[in-house]
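can u pls check wat happens w/ iron/sulfur cluster
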Amino acid sequence: MEKILVSRCLLGHRVRYDGGAHGPFDQLGLWLAEGRVVALCPEVAGGLPTPRPPAEIPGGQGALVLDGQARVLTEAGDDVSAAFLDGAQQALALVQHHGIRLAVLKSRSPSCGNRETYDGSFAGRKVAGEGVTAALLRRAGVQVFNEDELAAALEALQALDCS
Ligand code: SF4
């Protein structure tokens, strides 16, 4: 049975930077009941506390953080790249351990965002880009969806289940 990596905050775990969470999402509940879900919060796994200061990637490209060409910074200018990279590596290790080919990650997060992130200005400005974990998983061939793309994720899962 295909397993799915899911952002912990989408499962109601209060791991967001502000101590909040998201959900419930019916589809994620079904996958949990089927035993498909492998849950991870890359930032907490990387050693950051909850709550924690919000962080953004100037330019919004997690792939550049992976390549050492950009950093993840708090508004105060603290460099939290190492924790973000550690969390991304833990996500990759889980994916490899479980043979995961599909992830549902929280949109717009500097770790988990799969299509958009904030631009580093802390002014609420979004850019096309990915979080650090999302970028690493995509490089590893994982299909990454967000919580607004659960129908597409289900379709992708059914295609993998049939393959
Ligand atoms: S978006 Fe990702 S890193 Fe942020 S709280 Fe959710 S699981 Fe953790």
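Helices lie at 26-33, 42-45, 62-66, 81-98, 132-139, 150-162.
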